[in-house]
Every structure is written in structure tokens, then in C-alpha cells.
Amino acid sequence: MAAKLLAFVAAAALLLMGAAVESHNITDILNGYPEYSVYNNYLTQTKVADEINSRETVTCLVLSNGVMSGLAAKRPLAAIKAVLRLLTLLDYYDAKKLHDISDGSVLTTTLLQTTGNAAGNLGFVNITDLKGGKVGFGSTAPGSKLDSVYTKSVKLFPYSIAVLEIDHPILFDGLLDAPTKAANLTALLEKAGCKTFAALIASSGVLKIYQSAMDKGLTVFAPNDEAFKADGVPDLSTLSNAEVVTLLQYHAVPRYVPKASLLASTGPISTLASSGAGKYDLTVKTKGDEVTLATGLDISRVANTVIDDTPFCILTVDNILLPTELFGTAPAPAPGLAPDASPSPAPTTESPAPAPKKAKAPAPERALSPPAPPTESPADSPDDGKPADSKSVKAGAAGKPLSIWGFVAAAVAVGSMLLAS
Ligand SMILES: *[C@@H]1O[C@H](CO)[C@@H](O)[C@H](O)[C@H]1NC(C)=O
Ligand SMILES: *[C@@H]1O[C@H](CO)[C@@H](O)[C@H](O)[C@H]1NC(C)=O
Ligand SMILES: *[C@@H]1O[C@H](CO)[C@@H](O)[C@H](O)[C@H]1NC(C)=O
Q1: Ligand 1 center to residue 277 CA distance, Å?
Q2: Based on the domain organization, do 299 and 196 belong to the same domain?
Q3: Contact 250, 345 (CB under 8 A)
Q4: Do residues 280 and 148 share a domain?
Q5: Which residues line ligand 2 (CB under 6 A)?
Q6: What is the number of the ligand closest to the CA of 140?
Q7: 190 CB under 6 A from ligand 3?
Q8: What is the pTM of this model?
Q9: Which residues pair with 88 in a beta bridge?
Q10: What is the pLDDT of residues 338-394, one digit of tens each?
């Protein structure tokens, strides 16, 4: 009896999991409405679409093409991203709910508030039932007018996603001020606890490679200082300049993929070091809100966002990303770097890796003496470093597949019991 009850609970949990996974796709929804194609396009470019899709309950306040084009003209993507986040309410509002607001006015939170960029409560939106059946939206900044007016309901998926049109963007002073383009990457990295990495990219010349890629879309995975001191880190001072450059290029992706987008994209991604199919790829794995990057040799958690200046962002990682192409899979000499052996774009005269000398790994060979941290199953490290393990990628991190199969087995068991009774 107890077993039957347990199986039933397990089956119910499985159903709930299935329900939570089912989600909306704002890009797909708006594709049906060409009058919002400009808005839709910016949702994709800024990756706010991924943030919207990751929310279970959301209201998108959309702007028609003319209004959106006027707003976006000559503005940096980072500013447009802020506006789009403010226009994404983290609650479900249809016309009835708008007109039924108790006391006629309510504050609702938005994506801008949850991303942490908004000062104070500026990431909230004031919704007020105005005279004459109109509903106005406005900023919470003192002195703001409720001059964004609800015009119509575009598409509703009750209690999941509502798409409403408003006539005017919600703005406040400072919302459109993008982070200064002249951000000093070295200073940002140092402040975020990535001094060693900052020194390496500066001394190797890779900083210039990053800077020239920033405008077209770039995501940098910066290991923190602890990562360079961790047990088993190979002695980077034994690498040639060209190898250091390749290693640092491996820590960047020539696309804008902030954390919300990584969460929506399991599978292999190519890096700045990638030259051919599958070479120097990283494999993205997700589990709940966690993103990890697998190199084939080790696995690293994506920790914090240092800067998100669309289309450029820096995320910190807990471990150095060690490509199998450079460090091999067994304690054998690393393969030659034939295609990358040409002089690095900005060769240095002094040793490119001063700090890692603190690293404990004494062996000059370029292999991990102890295996990578044992938190993940070794089965996650295919020998060739290629994403051959797409099944385990889908299933999430190690350990998860087992519990899912447990649920499936329980569901099958309860099903047969119900049939039998
Ligand atoms: C959402 O829909 C768009 C357009 O149909 C598609 O390109 C995109 O891959 C979808 N996103 C997800 C996460 O499924
Ligand atoms: C919304 O704004 C109006 C007009 O400024 C104000 O009277 C009202 O108190 C605000 N509502 C909330 C919940 O702050
Ligand atoms: C950037 O910051 C670093 C360290 O904080 C400093 O040494 C460097 O001069 C700065 N670069 C520029 C261009 O300001």
C-alpha cells in the first residue's frame, strides 16, 4: 500500500515536471503579427526573448512598428534592452484584470527589476485605471506621468502569457543611458575577482582580439582567481605564447549569449578558438537555473554576470576551461598546434603567464595530474571532446537521468496498477 502511494506521488511529480517544462515562445507568438515585427526583432537581438520564455507568468507590453522604430533609432542595444525589460511585467494581465485593479492602482514588477540593474524600485511599473475606462502605465520614478495607454489585447494564453499593445513606451530619466562604451575590461575583470585572467588577456594581446569582436557580439567566460589556484590546474607557464592565445580565445564565444540565453541553449557552441567543425567547442549543460560548460576534460559552472552591455557580456566561471585539443585526455604530450602555430596577433616578449606559477601542479606535462573535480560523472567527458553525449546533455547534469527514469518507472508501475484494479 505504501509502495502504491509512493508510486502515485512519484507519478504526480512527473506530471508536474512535464507541465512546468511546457512553455511559450514569444518570438513565435509575435511572428503572427507583422505590425510588431520591429519589436520582435529587438527581443531577439537583445535576447530578452529568452528571458521572457523562461518565465511562467508574464505580460508583454508591445509597441507597434512605428513607435518602436522611433524609440530605437540610433540607440545602443543596451538601452533598448532596458526598455524591453521594463515592458515585460512578471504577472498576467488581460483586459478584465486591468480594469478590475483594486483601488484603481497597482505596482507590478518587471524583468528590469529582477535583473538587478534597476536602482531602487525603478524596475516596477505603475498600472492605474484612469477615468473613462482607460488604463495607464507609468514609471515609479517621482513625477512620472501615466502616459503609456493600453490600446488592445493582442494574444492571450490565460495565466501564462499575455501580449498587450500600449501606445507609448514607459520611460524614466536614465533608463536610456547605456553603460559607457568605453568600459575598461581590465578594470571590470579585476573588480569581479578575475585579476589573473585580466593580466593574462592583457599580456598575451588577447584583450585586443576581444575588443575588436565586442561590437559584433561577444561573450567572455572569465575564470576567477581561485580557479587559477585550484588543485590539478596545469602549469600554464609551460605553454607557448600561441597556446596561451588559443586557451584565452577558447574562453570567449563570438556571439552574444547572456546567461538567460545559455539556459535556453543546451548543446555545443563554438568559441573564438574554433577553426573547424567541433574543434575547440564548449558544451552547454543546464540544470534548473544553473549553467555549466563542459570542455570534454573538465566542467565549469557559469557564476556571475560581470557586465551585460548588449551585444557584449562577461560571465565568470569557477574553473579554467581546458580544451582537450590543448591538454589532451590522458597524460600524453599535447598534440601539436599546427593550424594555430602561426605567430599570435600580438606576441609578447615576456612570459605570458606570471600568476599561474602559484598553481600547485608541478608536472611540466600538459595533462591534468588528478582528474577534474569529481563533482560530475566522468561519463560526461567524451574522449574526443565532441558533443557525442547529446543524450546526457538533454537529461541535465549527472545523476538527473537516473531520477527521471525512476519517475518514469514509477509512472508505468502506477499505470499498470490502475489498469489492474
Ligand atoms: C522560438 O520560435 C522561433 C521562431 O519560430 C524559433 O526560431 C526559436 O528557435 C524558438 N525558440 C525556442 C527556444 O524554441
Ligand atoms: C501610480 O501613479 C499615480 C499617479 O502618479 C499615483 O497617484 C498612484 O498612487 C500610483 N500608484 C501606486 C500603487 O503607487
Ligand atoms: C584600465 O584599468 C587598468 C587597471 O585597472 C589600468 O591599468 C589601465 O590603465 C586602464 N586602461 C585604460 C585605457 O584606462
Answers
A1: 24
A2: yes
A3: no
A4: no
A5: 105-107, 126, 128, 138, 146
A6: 2
A7: yes
A8: 0.70
A9: 60
A10: 344 344 444 333 333 333 333 333 333 333 433 434 333 333 333 333 333 333 323
